[in-house]
């Protein structure tokens, strides 16, 4: 077995602000093949990564941004476990979304396209494990977008392992890449236990959760949420402001546009009108105006890669 690799570190703080956007795109694309970073021009972001044999461990810190990734069509399939240390992130996959808070783990399967909306001041540990190391029972299940809450004891265990290893990595220079095998075992235990656990008691959905689940419905708004959850308009408004700092209308519009941006970046053949309708707009002209106002570029420019990046 070979020794563990040295930790590689990249930071936009060492790059002049006008060049940070391009630098960060190159760093992200090299670290995670097939991934594109959509970020403001002067973004402040850092990435450190560590190879433990064929298992990868990375820590990403970033201001508000978004990344999108095309499906990996190579031979190796990986699961990426994102452990939130600070901030929040919403993973957009197909017509679904999974929002992780501090301490949660959300899983991505690189055989599927996805996008991640990253909150301001985000800090995340990312464990990348080849599915071949996880066993046939894990490989045979669809983990893409799976959200595991911080209250899950198996999540807590893996979080302690990852944080402990990362915080004391300088003391582990003499370990060999069997350390990666141990991390893969811990990830496998987490996934396997999640299949054995009893179904969690279904708690009442929050207005924000309901909105995220029904973004594609053009009728989605305060009135529909009130009707679905049997809440007053005032209660819905207060819930949105308390949890996301936005009104229901502003939050729904922002999430629809972010989902549209990820779909356009994938460029899978859908027309701009198709994308607009899929994310919940019923007027393509209005969608284009909203998109340009949010991202500083028309949907067609965004798809071609000539438009502006995400605003902060």
Automatic annotation (TrEMBL):
Parts of the chain that traverse the membrane: none
SMART domains noted in UniProt: HTH_ARAC (SM00342)
Name by which UniProt lists this protein: Transcriptional regulator, AraC family
Domain HTH araC/xylS-type: 205-305
InterPro entries linked to this entry: AraC-bd_2, AraC_XylS_family_regulators, Homeodomain-like_sf, HTH_AraC, HTH_AraC-typ_CS, Tscrpt_reg_AraC-type_HTH
Keywords of the record: DNA-binding, Transcription, Transcription regulation
Annotated coiled-coil segments of the chain: none
Gene Ontology molecular function: any one: sequence-specific DNA binding
Pfam families linked: AraC_binding_2, HTH_18
